[in-house]
Write a structure and sequence with these properties.
Largest sheet: 7 strands, parallel
Number of strands: 9
Strand order of the largest sheet: 4-2-6-1-7-8-9
Shape: globular
Helix content: 25-40%
Number of helices: 7
Strand content: 15-25%
Distance between the termini: 5 Å
Length: 214
């Protein structure tokens, strides 16, 4: 089964890129980040490419590169660029494609649209990346409500970082959305540790995702 899946976060800097690398390795999937704002010499795509097996062939070029490390709508304005997500061409691949969004669910992708609008326009199912910190239950529940309200299929929640059983149990019980994978904090971030983590979660993750592989 091949499909295109949005990797969306409850907030910025909660580990979407590392989670994308682990999940792509577990699924044998390709990776695409449509919009990169700032850090062009060490972009998220470059990081994922260095972490994946055969990453040079599995990471697709961004649709938009912006020079300033700002929200895409502000960075585009600084660069004199207009972004229209409806003009994006999704990469052609015979593998599952993980599409990493920027920021959180309602972070702007342009002056007139959010990441949720982008996901909804392309009718993408979503994996929601969460992280346990003070306030994360609220951010996770708000994100799930937004996605549900828009009719976006939430495949599950992926917890990134330190486990918190009480928070995670509440999220699952309150929303009915299952936590389908847990990714630890990596003290040493390298391809070997990404591969090891992917191998450890693969069977359970695929089973909960209802995924039969590429």
């Amino acid at each position: 089964m091949q499909q295109k899946i949005a990797i969306v976060g409850i907030h910025t800097d909660i580990g979407k890129t590392i989670a994308s690398a682990v999940l792509a390795e577990a699924l044998g999937a390709d990776y695409w980040k449509p919009v990169q704002a700032g850090s062009l010499d060490c972009s998220d795509s470059m990081l994922v490419k260095s972490l994946l097996s055969n990453g040079t062939k599995r990471v697709h070029p961004e649709a938009v590169l912006l020079t300033e490390p700002q929200s895409p709508h502000a960075a585009a304005k600084s660069d004199g660029i207009q972004i229209d997500h409806t003009h994006f061409l999704l990469p052609d691949t015979n593998k599952t494609l993980l599409i990493e969004t920027a920021g959180g669910v309602l972070s702007p992708v342009s002056d007139h649209a959010t990441m949720a609008d982008f996901i909804q326009y392309f009718n993408l199912p979503a994996l929601l990346i969460s992280n346990n910190y003070l306030g994360s239950i609220n951010h996770t529940l708000l994100s799930i409500e937004v996605l549900k309200k828009r009719g976006i299929n939430i495949l599950g929640v992926v917890m990134n970082g330190t486990e918190n059983a009480s928070s995670e149990e509440f999220i699952e019980a309150y929303t009915g959305v299952p936590i389908i994978a847990r990714i630890p904090f990596f003290e040493n971030l390298n391809s070997a540790n990404i591969k090891q983590c992917a191998a450890e979660i693969r069977s359970s993750f695929l089973e909960k995702l209802g995924y039969e592989g590429n």
